Structures are given as structure tokens and as C-alpha cells.
Amino acid sequence: MAWTYILECADGSFYVGSTTDLTLRIEQHNSGYGSAYTRRPGR
């Protein structure tokens, strides 16, 4: 099963992603692995 998630970061920004292992991905995000900032205009 795939998950789509929205995390609110400590600085108030949001991180949107998808994964098949939500627990592992949150651990990776919190450790800084694979997370990066991108900016796109909202639609």
C-alpha cells in the first residue's frame, strides 16, 4: 500500500511526499535523509 503524507516541519514549512513504508519514511525525514526543500506555486 502506498501512502501520501504532509508533514509540518519545525520551521513551519510543509513537506509532502509518498512512500510504501510510512514509519521508515518518517524516521528518514527526521534524520534528514532524503528530505529537501522545493518550491512550486500553489494551484
TrEMBL record:
<feature type="domain" description="GIY-YIG">
    <location>
        <begin position="1"/>
        <end position="43"/>
    </location>
</feature>
<dbReference type="InterPro" id="IPR000305">
    <property type="entry name" value="GIY-YIG_endonuc"/>
</dbReference>
<comment type="similarity">
    <text>Belongs to the UPF0213 family.</text>
</comment>
<dbReference type="InterPro" id="IPR035901">
    <property type="entry name" value="GIY-YIG_endonuc_sf"/>
</dbReference>
<protein>
    <submittedName>
        <fullName>GIY-YIG nuclease family protein</fullName>
    </submittedName>
</protein>
<dbReference type="InterPro" id="IPR050190">
    <property type="entry name" value="UPF0213_domain"/>
</dbReference>
<dbReference type="Pfam" id="PF01541">
    <property type="entry name" value="GIY-YIG"/>
</dbReference>
